[in-house]
Specification:
This protein is of the alpha/beta class and 240 residues long. The chain has one domain: 3-Layer(aba) Sandwich (Rossmann fold), CATH 3.40.50. Helices cover 39% and strands 23% of the residues. It contains nine helices and nine strands. It has helices at 38-46, 80-90, 97-106, 122-134, 152-168, 180-186, 204-209, 214-223, 225-234, and strands spanning 2-10, 13-21, 27-31, 53-57, 66-70, 140-144, 172-176, 189-194, 197-202. The strands form two sheets. A six-stranded mixed sheet has the order 5-6-7-3-8-9, with helices on both faces. Helix 2 (80-90) packs parallel to helix 4. The longest helix is centred in the middle third of the chain and has 17 residues, at 152-168. The N and C termini lie far apart (38 Å).
Length: 240
């Protein structure tokens, strides 16, 4: 996917992406301070918002190939099972109940198959939303802060699902998160945004561990002190 001269004004905010490439089959991290335009960009890619100018070249992707999860997922007023199979039904895709059960088992919701989906805990709703996004085999998945505020076990499950998905059938991911430890673990490419612009792109190591742009350094210093501490722990405290 190639983005060129993409513009969108929302009140006083102006998104202005001169150029940006989302390489297929990779996990992309989108980071930056609150209000920098990450969610606006994702909504433009999804088609929820209409750009004021510029282009998004989807390179053959259609709306049927793209899905998005958010920190506060929308669930149908229905059972867990019917929520999970909904993307398959609206695309007229055949499915076996055993396949659906396997997804429920994978995310720990097998015993809640017939439960009213909105009665699930917030963490369980996130899990249901996440596997619902994967069940129809999309080609592009946008994850908007889904990893935020999850308990460690749930966050670990999400990471494993992404890694497993990429091994079985690589798709393109755009992951928006302030959890930089997760970004470092799962992302092939990281894009940093500031004030509506893409400031830099690179590997997770280049952006998070060896940043050269002063705005990235300031962001890391002010919002993710714990990221450096966790990185120290993983390296056994040996940093040179």
């Amino acid at each position: 996917m190639k983005i060129t001269d993409l513009k969108k004004r929302l009140g006083e905010f102006q998104l202005d992406i001169g150029s940006m490439e989302i390489e297929p089959g990779l996990v992309h991290g989108l980071i930056g301070s609150n209000g920098c335009g990450k969610t606006t960009l994702s909504k433009l890619i999804m088609g929820i918002l209409t750009p004021d100018g510029g282009t998004i070249d989807y390179e053959g992707l259609t709306a049927r190939d793209i899905t998005m999860t958010s920190q506060k997922p929308y669930l149908l007023h229905d059972t867990v099972y019917n929520n999970l199979v909904y993307p398959l039904k609206i695309r007229n895709m055949p499915f076996e109940e055993a396949e659906v059960d396997a997804w429920l088992e994978r995310c720990g919701l097998a015993d809640k198959k017939r439960q009213y989906a909105r009665s699930l805990s917030s963490g369980e709703q996130q899990k249901l939303s996440f596997v619902r996004a994967l069940i129809f085999k999309p080609k592009l998945v946008i994850v908007d802060e889904t990893l935020s505020n999850l308990d460690p076990d749930s966050a670990d499950l999400f990471e494993r699902l992404i890694v497993e998905q990429q091994k079985e059938r690589p798709v393109t991911w755009i992951t928006i998160s302030h959890q930089l430890v997760h970004i470092q673990k799962i992302c092939d490419r990281v894009h940093f945004m500031e004030k509506g612009k893409r400031v830099a792109s690179g590997t997770a190591e280049e952006i998070l561990l060896r940043p050269t742009h002063p705005a990235i350094r300031a962001y890391l210093a002010s919002t993710e002190v714990s990221f450096r501490a966790k990185e120290d722990n993983e390296r056994g405290g040996d940093r040179t």
